[in-house]
Amino acid sequence: MQLLSKSSYLVLRSAARKLSTSTITRRQACLPASFYRGGTSKAVMVLKEDLPNDEKEWNPIFLSLMGSPDPDGRQLNGMGGGLSSVSKVAVVSKSSRKDADVDYTFVQIGIKDTVVDYASNCGNILSAVGPFSMEQGLFSPTDISSGQAVARIFNTNTNKVIHSTFPVSAPSTPKLDGDFSIDGVPGEGSRITLDFINPGGAKTGKLLPSGNAIDLVDSTTVPGYEGPRINTTLVDCGNPCVFVDPRSLNISPEVLPSELEKNETALSTLESVRRAGAVLMGMAKDVHMVAKTVPKICLISPRFDYKSTSYEVIGSSTIDLAARVISSGDPHRACPITTGLCIAAAAKIPGTLVRNSLEVRGNRADPVGIVIGHPSGRLSVSAEILEQGGVAVATKATVFRTARKLFEGSVFYEA
């Protein structure tokens, strides 16, 4: 994560102390919750019915239960873990829609600040929503004769439907143990299939928000932008993402999160490019009005041999291309699922930076989908793209995950 200056650190520490030593009497309160790992993320899972009816009252609860703000970046006073991938809340409820069983609202919680962001979806946490919903009695599968249940999930952040298919051992009992593994997570679990239905244009209405395979970012195309002149590819599939070639910014494609988070200059430049991309996507009027969570920004490059964060040798023949992602200001330890969807979609569109990176070297690792090499290993994703009226449209994207329930009970917060 990006280091704070001494003055910024002192301001944040003072604000955090004021929150904890306010003259207003603060008391411990609690609400029912479960704590799940979903994919390569973790989240506190709560039912909407257990939260205040006024959603404006949610933010202080979520900040407190996660331990934010924490100027030291550890979230030691809550459930968070000091990284954007483990500072998350999922709010779930029974759906009134005909095409969905449950509604799922994803909430990204700031770590050093008081940002509570509802702008994006989290594909990793999606893998936990189906099992959690079944255990909470929010839906009953119509047919489990195959040993599988399908939960139709409506994501309120993006207004998109996702079908989650997972094993069950009884009509209301998900089976999360199995022999399927994903990179970035020790151990094994049941395979959970996530089918994103018509995922294109989740936030902008278009798979290619600008209509272009390549968009130039500079001060003439984006007023207020002060970064380097650079080519980007802008894609919106599941969540919007800005793609850049790291070499055009003098960043090594092989960079790992621990190295990138120390490079304040690179992170600042990438943040400027991300904000400019959001303006070109029509997501914000200017670079100062961009949400923290979306779009993501991804360094995309041709495949190469490298060592993962766990020192596993990732051979270039086992991946199709390489990606390094910045999520909510943090270099991601893996690859966000929705960024993977954007990669799979862009790989099928001629002229994009993703497609150009894919075509550089020989035979594909996966002739059907895309195998993405990320810091902790590999991620396999597939997307179905059709051309309608000369415009690329994503009809479906699929990824496989695992999930694990870590605890259920009550989570405490200061009210």
Describe this structure in words.
With 415 residues, this protein is of the alpha+beta class. Helix content is 18%, strand content 33%. The chain contains seven helices and 21 strands. The strands form two sheets. It has a 19-stranded mixed β-sheet that branches. Strands 14-15 form a two-stranded antiparallel sheet. A hairpin with a 1-residue loop joins strand 11 and strand 12. The longest helix is centred in the middle third of the chain and has 17 residues, at 264-280. The chain is globular, with a radius of gyration of 21 Å. The two termini are 29 Å apart.
Helix count, per DSSP?
Answer: 7
What would the average pLDDT be, to the nearest integer? 93
Helix content: 10-25%
Structural class label: alpha+beta
Global geometry: globular
SSE diagram, text form:
Blueprint: H1 6-20, E1 28-38, E2 41-47, H2 58-66, E3 88-94, E4 102-109, E5 116-117, H3 123-135, E6 148-155, E7 160-170, E8 173-174, E9 192-197, E10 215-217, E11 230-237, E12 239-244, H4 257-260, H5 264-280, E13 296-302, E14 306-307, E15 313-314, E16 321-327, E17 330-331, H6 337-346, H7 353-358, E18 370-374, E19 377-388, E20 391-401, E21 403-414
Parallel strand pairs: 2-3, 4-6, 12-13, 16-18
Antiparallel strand pairs: 1-2, 1-21, 3-4, 4-5, 6-7, 7-8, 7-9, 9-20, 10-11, 11-12, 13-16, 14-15, 16-17, 18-19, 19-20
